[in-house]
């Protein structure tokens, strides 16, 4: 009797496994799903039917593009990339949306201060840095500048701001504190300002990105130029602004940091860490929106990992969208987005990435895009 019950249990388990196993969709469907997970950059302040932008958006079907005003892979002068005037930017974003399969996410970094892609030289408003706004300590000032920022983004056809920065202020951090990118040192103050910024953006139909998870403010290095270890400087309070804003429903996207933190994961930097992204951000902080990687070609990643294994690790860790700006010291490569789609599809077919993980990411991206229609 016991033997028959055991055999019946095994048979049921096997049948269950057969029922949940999913056949892979066609290559064209897989490619479309993989492309939706990319946020890519391109050159030029206008687009034509034969431009790289057309190939990425119309032909490949990427989910998002990221715009810059300075081409760091070229002569690195003002207006050398995508943004040269309000009128040209609006014409370009209109054309990109006409090519898109559904709604295209169009993103840029507009924090104010030193990190401001929409500069006065192109006809936009000069905005103070986050630190200066934090020192004002006035709700009306924070809302005023956030309203200006969001209005100019919306009028230009940009629907995602890669801001606000919710890292805590440590004055010696070269990538953040030293250039006034942080509102304050106190988590509650950071969250107070960031919540108002998110509110003003949402009123204009622009989504916001909290960065850089799980906290980059205490870093003594810059992950643009190498892997940064914050094990000895990071404090759990650096999670608090993310937690507060997620609880308030202010977080549309969260951007990862290429930082190594043995307190949270002894093996991988945050962008590639399942313990940090799925364990802490998803399960502990209950974030169910889109997790966006920082640029996958920053030297914090690319100097330490080959790109294909890094993509697999990032997606399996919990990244729903991968930023590939094609505008960094590792250079511009026109066919890079196509190769990345090939890598993701190959990893799904080889079983290194579960189909369910790709489907989950696409569902979150679609849900994010649906916010734009409200």
Characterise this structure.
This protein is of the alpha/beta class. The protein has one domain: TIM Barrel (Alpha-Beta Barrel), CATH 3.20.20. It is built from 13 helices and 12 strands.
Short description:
The chain is of the alpha/beta class. It contains 13 helices and twelve strands.
Distance between the termini: 60 Å
Radius of gyration: 21 Å
Overall pLDDT metric: 93
Element-by-element helix/strand order: HHEHEHEEEHHEHEEHEEHEHHEHH
**Proportion of strand residues:** 5-15%
Number of helices: 13
> Would you identify the regions where 5 or more consecutive residues have pLDDT less than 50?
5-19
Strand order of the largest sheet: 11-9-7-6-3-2-1-12
CATH architect. name: Alpha-Beta Barrel
The level of helicity is 40-55%
CATH class: Alpha Beta
Oligomer: single chain
**Structural class given helices, strands, pairing?**
alpha/beta
The CATH topology assignment is TIM Barrel
Please tell me what the overall shape is. globular
CATH superfamily: Glycoside hydrolase, family 3, N-terminal domain
| Largest sheet, strands/sense/barrel | 8 strands, parallel
């Amino acid at each position: 009797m016991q033997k028959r019950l055991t055999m019946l249990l095994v048979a049921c388990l096997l049948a269950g496994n057969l029922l949940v196993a999913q056949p892979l969709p066609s290559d064209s469907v897989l490619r479309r799903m993989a492309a939706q997970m990319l946020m890519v950059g391109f050159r030029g302040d206008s687009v034509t039917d034969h431009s790289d932008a057309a190939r990425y958006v119309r032909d490949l079907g990427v989910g998002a593009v990221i715009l810059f005003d300075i081409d760091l892979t070229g002569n690195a002068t003002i207006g050398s990339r995508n943004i040269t005037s309000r009128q040209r930017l609006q014409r370009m974003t209109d054309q990109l949306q006409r090519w898109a399969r559904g709604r295209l996410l169009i993103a840029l970094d507009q924090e104010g201060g030193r990190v401001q892609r929409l500069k006065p030289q192109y006809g936009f408003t000069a905005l103070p840095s986050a630190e200066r706004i934090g020192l004002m300590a006035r709700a009306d000032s924070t809302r005023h500048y956030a309203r200006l920022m969001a209005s100019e983004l919306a009028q230009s056809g940009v629907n995602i701001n890669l801001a606000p920065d919710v890292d805590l202020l440590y004055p010696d951090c070269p990538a953040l504190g030293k250039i006034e990118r942080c509102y304050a040192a106190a988590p509650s103050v950071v969250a107070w300002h960031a919540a108002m910024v998110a509110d003003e953006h949402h009123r204009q139909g622009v989504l916001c990105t909290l960065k850089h998870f799980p906290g980059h403010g205490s870093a003594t290095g810059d992950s643009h130029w190498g892997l940064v270890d914050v094990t000895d400087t990071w404090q759990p309070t650096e999670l608090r602004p993310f937690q507060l804003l997620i609880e308030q429903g202010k977080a549309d996207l969260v951007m990862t940091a290429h930082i190594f933190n043995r307190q949270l994961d002894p093996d991988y930097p945050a962008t590639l860490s399942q313990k940090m992204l799925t364990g802490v951000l998803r399960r502990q902080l209950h974030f169910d929106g889109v997790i966006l990687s920082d640029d996958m070609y920053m030297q914090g990643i690319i100097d330490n990992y080959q790109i294909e294994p890094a993509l697999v690790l990032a997606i399996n860790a919990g990244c729903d969208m991968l930023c590939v700006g094609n505008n960094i010291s590792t250079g511009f490569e026109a066919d890079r987005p196509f190769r990345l789609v090939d890598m993701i599809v190959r990893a799904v077919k080889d079983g290194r990435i579960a189909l369910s993980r790709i489907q989950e990411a696409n569902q979150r991206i679609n849900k994010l895009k649906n916010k734009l229609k409200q």
